[in-house]
Specification:
Blueprint lengths: L5 E4 L1 E5 L6 H8 L2 E5 L4 E4 L6 H13 L4 E5 L6 E5 L2 E3 L1 E8 L2 E6 L6 E4 L5 H14 L3 E5 L5 E6 L23 H21 L7 H12 L22 H14 L5 E12 L7 E15 L6 E5 L9 E2 H6 L7 E6 L2 E3 L4 E2 L4 H21 L9
Antiparallel strand pairs: 1-5, 2-3, 3-4, 5-6, 7-11, 8-9, 9-10, 11-12, 13-14, 13-17, 14-15, 15-16, 18-19
């Protein structure tokens, strides 16, 4: 039986309308009423120190027409817990161990876990299996440790479907294997010659560190997440959007970045997650061709502020992610999503997902404090 104190809905309107900063609105109006679909209302009390942050998150979700998961106090309808659901298609469902199932979502490299001790395990497993078979998107809510607690069918609102999924490019014409081999050989030779003949034109190690520092400087303040900051401090998910935005910034700096993708059973220790680690099925970051330290030596180095404080080799980048059998794939910077060679030339999907994960970071900081977390080694 549905819990009457749990609501998964979109925000319809605010009363009074949000025409000023959230903190000012709460003070001036002595609170703000939030109307959800179906007419239900919740109220944000200015006396609650979390209300400003909650109002900012609700406003952000409203702008992007995204649902919100709310647990409410039955006596006052005050928000006791806010979570930001994922909207997407289920692409894989398989056991992690004898205690949980791993769920993979389209456009998500994080691992989402359905634990056997979840009270609604059987019902949620059935919903996920049916959604995977039908290809229907779901609204999936998980706690901050990525344990799934609620799954519902997704129905587009009056403004159309969300989120924006760029369409895959049509596959290129198939060419004979011998021509593919020759093209690959010449491509490798050209890259080798280019890096060496134009050695002086590629970035120095000092310049690579400067570029890294510029990227890292765009990191979000966890409690305010002002656009267009990049949510490096939320390593759990969203790497493809972070990488695409970093490539855009590098191109605007006159650089020629590429990307490296990794696939495997990846686990990374981090102080930017309250659990001190994150699981991934894949990950991506920009690369730059860097010269040195020896004369005529060049290598592709990875720029990944979510994991490091300096540019690193691809081998080092792979090694920290915990799967020696993981595979690497290099692509042009234009590839936004590897599977299907999806591009995002207008950066509309990139901006959408950056906004989504900025809100996830802000909600985590509101609930747990700002990272890094002192309990992590």
């Amino acid at each position: 039986m549905p819990n009457p104190n749990v609501v998964v809905s979109r925000v319809v309107r605010f009363d009074p309308p949000l025409d000023r900063a959230p903190a000012e609105m709460l003070r001036a109006a002595r609170g703000v009423s939030v109307e959800l679909e179906g007419g239900r209302r919740v109220r944000l009390d200015p006396a609650n120190p979390r209300s400003v942050g909650l109002l900012q998150i609700l406003e952000g979700l409203s702008k992007h027409r995204l649902p919100v998961y709310l647990e409410l106090d039955p006596a006052t309808s005050a928000i006791t817990r806010l979570l930001i659901p994922h909207v997407g298609r289920v692409t894989d469902l398989r056991p992690i161990d004898d205690k949980a199932l791993g769920v993979q979502l389209e456009r998500s490299h994080g691992r989402h876990t359905l634990r056997h001790d979840q009270p609604d395990f059987a019902e949620i497993e059935k919903q996920l299996g049916e959604a995977m078979q039908s290809g229907s998107p779901v609204i999936l809510t998980e706690d901050d440790a990525h344990n799934i607690i609620d799954v519902r069918a997704y129905r587009p609102g009056p403004d159309g479907p969300v989120p924006p999924f760029p369409k895959p490019e049509p596959p290129p014409p198939r060419i004979p294997w011998i021509l593919r081999w020759i093209r690959k050989l010449f491509g490798w030779m050209w890259h080798w010659l280019w890096c060496r003949w134009w050695w002086f034109g590629w970035v120095s190690q000092t310049r690579a560190q400067q570029v890294f520092d510029v990227m890292n400087a765009t990191s979000c303040d966890p409690l305010t997440v002002p656009a267009p900051c990049i949510p490096f401090l939320y390593p759990d998910d969203g790497c493809w959007a972070r990488a695409h935005e970093m490539c855009r910034l590098m191109i605007n700096m006159g650089l020629s970045p590429k990307k490296v993708w990794i696939q495997g059973a990846l686990y990374v220790s981090t102080r930017n997650n309250p659990s001190c680690g994150v699981w991934w099925g894949w990950h991506v970051a920009p690369t730059l061709c860097v010269r040195g330290p020896r004369f005529f030596q060049t290598q592709r180095m990875v720029i990944d502020p979510s994991l490091f404080t300096t540019p690193v080799s691809k081998a080092t980048w792979k090694g920290i992610q915990g799967d020696i059998n993981a595979t690497l794939t290099d692509t042009d910077a234009a590839i936004y999503y590897l599977w299907g060679s999806v591009t995002d030339p207008t950066y509309s999907a990139t901006n959408y997902y950056l906004a989504f994960y900025r809100l996830q970071l802000q909600n985590r900081a509101l609930q747990n404090g700002a990272p890094p977390y002192a309990n992590c080694p």
